[in-house]
């Protein structure tokens, strides 16, 4: 509330000093040259895809098991979303990428789902070989690293969401783009603000997708606590892993991966029954996401079927997200583990 | 004496009530749509007198969504004016359509007699702007639109509280947009917008489209966007809405005092004709002045924060270069771009400040 009052005192509510300061602090935090604040994670993806100059008929490859916005923004930017299957870790399978690349392919949007980095080394090699852009959808993975390099520092640009359910969250919608490319960043600085170069001159048709000044003020306060929160999340996730390993498939970190566990997702047999059992016993277990994007009515025109991505379908039938947040107590975790253990031993 | 253009620090000088509302919001954790947004939408719909109000992240987003809701498709054309904020045209482009401009009249509003000349088989909507918080001749706009069976979308972004013979801006077209940007009559602490309509089908479409096309948490009906009103801003807007009538009346009072003060200067500076029955909210107090640039510098040098909205009409912006217009396309609009000036006339200006503005203008033109 103090942060909000300082904005009120200044009387500057739109793209003022708080947004600027937050952008600098966020860039430093991500080991990125530039960061630019926008209205939401969806806007971030959309503006970057527009900024990269997608044309009608272009194709962009992404994962089918993400939140809808990863693919919807490709469609909004005028291109066609193309999906490839995922690996056991829940992220894009680099080995499937080349099957989907053709002369219309312009880029790849790997998603670092649940806070786990995608296989960026392999993805970048393939992108370089085919001269494709890589836009990291890091909406769920601020702070995650792979071989010591932050997500968001691998591709041409990365998009982050600051939605209320994210690790670093606004009190409403917010998003960030990081990039090492000054031309792209200069474009975004205009495209988020009507294409305006200054108050009077409009260089190209843009949008209004600005990060709110008061959200930026509150986010700056939170950013200072983020590392501590992430540390707690990781500790709790590792503890869950040890408690639950006998019963379900747990999200162990792969070699070189430092995950931030935006969501804590296990893969469980008889998932639907387990979910009901947990819910009935007061545990808010959810499924992210029950219907993959390629099978949504929105994607009907793209021509995919339920047989297209077997690993995705296997995931979709087994995944379940357990409560994980910095304030979660060991007693609460033990209760969840006890219920899961009971479920599999007595059913 | 200082006369500031922005009044936000004064309007929100006493924030305790707002902060109490915000604390209540924070304690519920309802940060994505939810009850605070719904409550504000209901209250706003009742104020305007429509069935549906749908909050959006911005006024620009609201306009784009309105155009989508009336069926504007890529390749279509939408008719609007060139003397408005760039977002009016930007929203048309964002909807995939092409902006087609018509000239304005001496009230700075769309010249209705020019609309039919701009129609084509591709025209999918007419989007008049309530520019500066003043309504265009909506009955004539509607008559033309009805005759050609083309939907009207009101860009009423600057005009919460404006009306014609008691009928609110935002109730003439099929689906209509308001902005709640900090310098609009109904303002929030950042960006915000709101769409109003009586069309159930359009409202149902917009509720899905603004939230990723999500029917429920798991089902996506069509590709949508994230264009949600922030609950934080809904809470602020709700409290400001309680004061909107007082606030608009104060603006009207101040504008009348300025109008009266400019009497006798008709050879130098004039405010526009203000027809009977039109309630203006003076989001901008516009006047037409000779030696405008000199007057602007003189006012600013005396501490009066006058501005120009805007010196470059949209059809002459770099962004519009592919639309095929040039200088001379819209002579009234272009002349006004060189002559208009915006004087501070907001609700927190005192009579002394208005009299000071008037005396400085007299001094500039050498009239005593």
Features:
heterodimer; A: 347 residues; alpha/beta; Aspartate Aminotransferase, domain 2; 2 domains; seven-stranded mixed sheet; three-stranded antiparallel sheet; 11 helices; B: 368 residues; alpha+beta; Aspartate Aminotransferase, domain 1; 38% helix
Question: What does this 3D model show about the protein?
Answer:
The complex is a heterodimer of chains A (347) and B (368). Chain A has 347 residues and is α/β, with parallel strands linked by helices. Chain A has 2 domains: 2-220, Aspartate Aminotransferase, domain 2 (3-Layer(aba) Sandwich), CATH 3.40.640; 226-346, Aspartate Aminotransferase, domain 1 (Alpha-Beta Complex), CATH 3.90.1150. Chain A contains 11 helices and 12 strands. Chain A has helices spanning 2-10, 17-29, 41-51, 69-76, 94-100, 120-130, 182-191, 213-244, 271-280, 310-318, 330-346, and strands spanning 34-38, 59-62, 80-83, 105-109, 133-137, 145-146, 149-150, 157-161, 175-179, 257-258, 264-267, 319-322. In chain A, the strands form 3 sheets. Chain A has a 7-stranded mixed beta sheet with strand order 1-9-8-5-4-2-3, sandwiched between helices. A 3-stranded antiparallel beta sheet of chain A has the order 7-6-10, with no helix packed on it. A two-stranded antiparallel ribbon of chain A has the order 11-12. In chain A, α6 (120-130) links the parallel β4 and β5 (133-137). The longest helix of chain A has 32 residues, at 213-244. Chain A is globular and about 70 Å long. Chain A starts with a helix and ends with a helix. In chain B, α5 (86-94) links the parallel β2 and β3. With 368 residues, chain B is an alpha+beta fold. Chain B folds into 2 domains: 8-242, Aspartate Aminotransferase, domain 2 (3-Layer(aba) Sandwich); 244-365, Aspartate Aminotransferase, domain 1 (Alpha-Beta Complex), CATH 3.90.1150.10. The mean pLDDT of chain B is 96. In chain B, the strands form 4 sheets. Chain B has a 3-stranded antiparallel beta sheet with strand order 1-8-7. A 3-stranded parallel beta sheet of chain B has the order 3-2-4, with helices on one face. In chain B, strands 6-5-10 form a 3-stranded antiparallel beta sheet, with no helix packed on it. In chain B, α2 runs antiparallel to α9 (231-242). Chain B is built from 13 helices and 12 strands. At the A-B interface, α1, α3, α4 and α8 of A face α2, α4, α5 and α9 of B.
